[in-house]
């Protein structure tokens, strides 16, 4: 109940006011059954606008820190993520990735929509970064369709480093499902999941106006790479 209340009454109208969001390609999302929405990630607002504009309920696997905070802010954050049905995952320890993927498989086995950002973190510079393979480690064994999603305009509404939102124009493109038939396997190899992941990132790149950086987003947060370093012209090898 809270998910739909937040979406349609408490938060949705504010998002529509600030972002004037539009969506194309939503007809690619099946009305029922498991599906993976794999999106580029520019700002925190991406999740809010994606939930707002997609008719089906989306579940994200959220970092555990959102559920363990203290004080008023921590309690409000935990209450919000819990009431909207988001699933906590502990990302520390050796089994963290395995637990996250098992949780994602559970969402799909229940016929749900799993929302995921294959870059793993928000882009620190507005460019598209190397994809992590978790999406395909779930998609290939389960056969769940993977729909690339391109977000545009959210940085103008929710600038990185600012607590103030601004008026802007958000547009979401839902691409057709990837053809992964040649990659499907009960236990796909490392080479297979990387090849399928690169195919996903190629589609995101082709449908966005971003440049590509052949490095993980989290690495670029920790290490300041030279800004003049040019992206590879064909980075998916």
Description:
- With 237 residues, the protein is of the alpha/beta class.
- The protein contains nine helices and nine strands.
- The strands form two sheets. It has a seven-stranded mixed β-sheet with strand order 1-8-7-2-5-3-4, sandwiched between helices. The chain has a two-stranded parallel sheet with strand order 6-9.
- β3 (58-63), α4 and β4 (87-89) form a beta-alpha-beta unit.
- Residues 223-237 have low confidence and may be disordered.
Quickly count the helices: 9
General shape: globular
Strand neighbour order, sheet with most strands: 1-8-7-2-5-3-4
Distance between the termini: 45 Å
Q: What is the gyration radius calculated from CA atoms?
A: 17 Å
Total number of beta strands: 9
Major sheet: size, sense and barrel closure?
Answer: 7 strands, mixed
Average pLDDT, all residues: 85
Topology order in helix (H) and strand (E) letters: HHEEHEHEHEEHEHEHEH
Q: Structural class per helix/strand content?
A: alpha/beta
Strand content: 15-25%
Helix content: 25-40%
Are there runs of 5+ residues with pLDDT below 50, and where? 223-237
